[in-house]
Specification:
single chain, about 170 residues, alpha+beta, 2 domains, two-stranded antiparallel sheet, 7 helices, about 45% helix
């Protein structure tokens, strides 16, 4: 929303009596100030955007990007989601950060060994597991170890993960 603000000309050293300055509600800090004025929050947001853009430019791998749009990946992704019953395996086993045991929202299929490290394992069923957004970030950051991730994938393949999850529930009930 723009607002006209009239200021005395003598403030600017202008021969005219009135100078019109456009004030605007800042989307970064929430205050109202001249749209040409420098805003510290806007500068911080621009710096964050620039860092993110630099990171994505450096980390982009065209081969990986092309793979994510292939029919093979789409079919394998659906297969893994179906295999894992469209549940986050980390939440199912109640790993740290679990808020809902049977999480079905914001699911993605995670590569245990990243594509950039070993592109040949991109469609390896033992290298893939279904995780929610929170646990995906934890896996990517290394907070959930690869060995734990491998065990979850193996249990999902042989079907024991649901039985183990049921045993955990029975143990907690008492």
């Amino acid at each position: 929303m723009k607002v006209s603000f009239l200021r005395r000309a003598s403030d600017k050293g202008c021969p005219f009596w009135l100078v019109v300055t456009m004030l605007k509600s800042c989307q970064y800090c929430g205050r109202i100030h001249d749209e040409r004025a420098e805003c510290k929050k806007r500068d911080e947001a621009k710096a964050r955007r620039d860092r993110f853009n630099d990171y994505t430019r450096r980390s982009r791998n065209e081969k990986v990007d092309r793979f994510r749009h292939t029919g093979n990946w789409t079919r394998m992704r659906e297969h893994i989601l179906h295999r894992d019953r469209r549940l986050c395996l980390c939440c199912l086993m109640e790993l740290p950060g679990t808020q809902t045991k049977y999480e079905t929202r914001d699911l993605s299929v995670h590569h245990i060994v990243p594509l950039a490290e070993d592109f040949e394992r991109r469609l390896d069923e033992t290298n893939l597991l279904t995780v929610c957004a929170y646990h995906h970030e934890a896996c990517e950051a290394g907070a959930i170890g690869r060995e734990t991730q491998r065990q979850l994938a193996e249990k999902s393949i042989d079907g024991t993960i649901l039985r183990d999850a049921a045993n955990i529930s029975a143990d907690t009930r008492g």
